[in-house]
Amino acid sequence: VCRLDPYDGFPESYLIHGGRTPNNEISSSLYMLTMDSRGCNRKLTLCCKEKELVGELPEARYGHTMSMVQSHGKTACVLFGGRTFMPAGERTTESWNSVVDCPPQVFLFDLEFGCSSAHTLPELSDGQSFHLAFAREDCVYFLGGHSITSDCRPPRLHRLRVELLQGSPLLSCETLHTGISISSAITTRIGPSHRYIILGGYQSDSQKRMGCSMVVLDEKEIHIEPLEPPKWTQDIVHSRTWFGG
């Protein structure tokens, strides 16, 4: 899910892409959820419409991120990462529902014209899933995540810059060295500034992340600072499951 700020007279909305059901179905659909109206009884009505895309389309996936970027007066949606089913030609009876990390491509959605384009950058060489993404203006930061291939959570941090030029967009990526090992965490933006709280998630398959972090995006870089965690209930402390959402 990705929040889309109001623009050009359109209300605040949310983009919903992909996902996995309990029946092992993985979606490739893109939806836009908006507030339709508040009637005389003040009841909130929501409107959900599927958006059709053309061009280079991302395959069905889950565990990915979507972020909004703004550049040169234009707006676009950035999709990255996630998991999908193993290619049909590689599946066996035993591995029919096995999943793999999607190729590390970046997809750009032009929501005005419904166009999608795929981009490959040398810095993004491995697939990653259940990572975190933070966006400000023309930059998106990808933090952490889990890799099926290596079965680890490397403390990686990438800064993707997207210039929405006339004609073709220009993408560049930089690897930063201030990341943390984390996956499946919850991230929440607090207030109108570019400040976020990270809580929960996993440091390893058997170790939940009980600490919290504050993320601040300024005009040039990202700052990640430890934050005093709340006093967790015993249910959370002793639970084996901790899955962000």
UniProtKB/TrEMBL annotation:
<dbReference type="GO" id="GO:0005634">
    <property type="term" value="C:nucleus"/>
</dbReference>
<dbReference type="InterPro" id="IPR015915">
    <property type="entry name" value="Kelch-typ_b-propeller"/>
</dbReference>
<dbReference type="GO" id="GO:0006325">
    <property type="term" value="P:chromatin organization"/>
</dbReference>
<dbReference type="GO" id="GO:0097519">
    <property type="term" value="C:DNA recombinase complex"/>
</dbReference>
<protein>
    <submittedName>
        <fullName>Recombination-activating protein 2</fullName>
    </submittedName>
</protein>
<keyword id="KW-0863">Zinc-finger</keyword>
<keyword id="KW-0156">Chromatin regulator</keyword>
<dbReference type="InterPro" id="IPR011043">
    <property type="entry name" value="Gal_Oxase/kelch_b-propeller"/>
</dbReference>
<dbReference type="GO" id="GO:0008270">
    <property type="term" value="F:zinc ion binding"/>
</dbReference>
<dbReference type="GO" id="GO:0043565">
    <property type="term" value="F:sequence-specific DNA binding"/>
</dbReference>
<dbReference type="InterPro" id="IPR004321">
    <property type="entry name" value="RAG2"/>
</dbReference>
<dbReference type="Pfam" id="PF03089">
    <property type="entry name" value="RAG2"/>
</dbReference>
<keyword id="KW-0479">Metal-binding</keyword>
<dbReference type="GO" id="GO:0033151">
    <property type="term" value="P:V(D)J recombination"/>
</dbReference>
<keyword id="KW-0862">Zinc</keyword>
